[in-house]
Specification:
Blueprint lengths: L1 H13 L2 H9 L15 H13 L3 E6 L7 H20 L4 E5 L10 H18 L3 E3 L7 H12 L5 E6 L5 H8 L6 E4 L14 H17 L4 E4 L3 H13 L7 E6 L4 H9 L4 E7 L4 H10 L4 H10 L1
Parallel strand pairs: 1-2, 1-8, 2-3, 3-4, 4-5, 5-6, 6-7, 7-8
This protein binds dihydroflavine-adenine dinucleotide (FDA).
Length: 306
């Protein structure tokens, strides 16, 4: 009950535009560095190299929330292009993740597509794979449409499906003709009961179901979770069906359960770490706190250090 209240509180804070702008002004503080590699790409390089050296693949994400004008959308696009060039220049084993609202989706679909094609052309040129993150349910349909359109032009693109949405099973079936590489997650936004399973038990069961269907269809699957039970289920499933290790990977967020991340690599599985960077860390951090209010301790430590 208290946990649920805290979860709602952090999700509410994370969606607050004024707080986002304030937090940006104060720079990388409030314990953000535990979950964010650095304020710039150069600042993040050491952390990225360390991860690759340990055997982790990476997906880089330039943080940004609430882009509501064309100038900001174009700047966010430039950041993605810069990240692609950076990955290639430093020979990093890394993909790119992005949110299409950052590329201008809420301003116009046309602007978003123009920016996405700029990114995808560069990504193709440098051999970098791009994943479109999934945002809140109101943008799920349009995100999948954008993905489908781009997938017909580029093969180095994937997207995300969320186990908490009722619609996702149908989406998975409709997406299959595109032979998509999909990241499957529980879902990070505060969603109403009309669209999302309110109980964790149902979300977890749906998560397992989606993983099984996608893997057994022979599609590449990224299982993005810190949940030991889902990880156990996946390991057993791939063993039972002789699914090769290059058809799936586990993914976790930078700074969350780092010891578990290393154990999974040592067991011989592929593990990709989602690494956010940039000064717009606020909303991202609030969602991490909502998932696990125990992380508040890290944030408080960050404040004390200031
Ligand atoms: P959950 O939060 O239920 O945690 C399960 C268990 O994991 C806990 O009971 C605990 O045992 C353990 N655990 C979790 N956090 C821990 C911690 N900090 N320390 C110790 N143990 C911990 N969402 C979205 O909506 N769109 C997206 O595009 C993405 N993309 C994405 C990429 C990647 C790589 C990841 C890992 C996640 C996302 N997400 C996401 C977020 C996702 O939807 C979800 O909110 C979080 O992953 C949290 O859910 P879990 O599956 O980890 O399980």
């Amino acid at each position: 009950m208290i946990e649920q209240m805290m979860r709602n509180f952090f999700l509410f804070l994370g969606e607050n535009k004024k707080m986002t702008k304030l937090a940006k002004k104060y720079g990388l503080s409030l314990g953000a560095s535990r979950f964010v590699a650095g304020a710039t790409l150069e600042d993040s390089l050491d952390a990225l190299r360390k991860l690759n050296k340990k055997g982790f693949s990476i997906t880089l994400d330039h943080l940004g929330e609430f882009v509501d004008n064309e100038k900001e959308a174009n700047e966010m696009t430039d950041h993605c292009i810069e990240a692609i060039e950076f990955i290639d220049k430093h020979n990093l084993d890394s993909q790119l993740s992005l949110k299409i609202t950052s590329m201008g989706l809420d301003i116009s679909r046309e602007l978003c597509m123009k920016n996405m094609r700029r990114i995808m052309d560069k990504a193709k040129q440098h051999g970098v794979f791009v994943t479109i993150d999934m945002e809140d349910h109101s943008r799920c349909g349009v995100t999948l449409e954008v993905f489908k359109e781009l997938k017909q032009e580029y093969d180095n693109i994937g997207t995300v499906i969320q186990a908490y949405l009722y619609r996702t099973i149908d989406d998975l079936n409709e997406l299959d003709e595109y032979q998509p590489r999909l990241r499957i997650v529980k879902g990070a936004y505060k969603e109403p009961e009309e669209v999302a399973f309110p109980n964790k038990k149902d979300v977890d069961q749906n998560f397992k179901n989606l993983i099984q269907i996608h893997l057994l269809r022979g599609r590449f699957t990224s299982i993005a979770t810190h949940d030991d039970e889902i990880i156990r289920f996946t390991k057993e499933l791939v063993k039972r069906h002789n699914i090769p290790k290059d058809q799936f990977e586990f993914q976790m967020l930078y700074g969350i359960r780092p010891e578990r991340q290393e154990e999974i690599i040592k067991e011989g599985y592929n593990m990709r770490i989602y690494v956010p960077y940039g000064d717009d860390w606020y909303g991202y951090n609030m969602r991490r706190l909502a998932e696990r209010p125990a992380n508040v301790a890290f944030v408080l430590k960050g404040i004390m250090k200031k």
